[in-house]
Design goal:
Elements: E1 2-7, E2 10-15, E3 19-23, E4 30-34, E5 37-41, E6 45-47, E7 55-76, E8 81-101
Antiparallel strand pairs: 1-2, 1-5, 3-8, 4-7, 5-6, 7-8
């Protein structure tokens, strides 16, 4: 069984027992319930308009992790002007514990 859930403004394909790296969530470590389920597929497919009624995904927050550093380099020729900026996105690790359809 798998589901497609909306976390933040992005959609994720999730399966029970797998761990996913999603954009940073405001909740701390512990159990979380995701209500914005767009699709649930098992024996049959339930498609929501926009969300599936009565479907939830239970997940466990397993901490945070930093992504790779992305460098932005701006250079203007013949001006002795250059600027470099770095950014590391912080991700939340989610382990899917159960997909519930009622």
């Amino acid at each position: 069984m798998f589901a497609i859930v909306e976390i933040g403004k992005k959609q994720y394909f999730v399966e029970k027992g797998h761990t996913y790296k999603v954009e940073r969530l405001s909740q701390k470590e512990g159990e979380i319930t995701l209500d914005k389920v767009l699709l649930v597929a098992g024996d049959k497919v339930d498609l929501g308009l926009p969300y599936v009624k009565g479907a939830t995904v239970k997940a466990q927050i397993n901490g945070e992790q930093k992504g790779v550093k992305v460098l932005s380099y701006k250079y203007r020729r013949r001006k002795k002007s250059r600027r470099i900026r770095g950014h590391r996105q912080i991700y939340t690790l989610l382990k899917i514990s159960d997909i519930i359809v009622s």
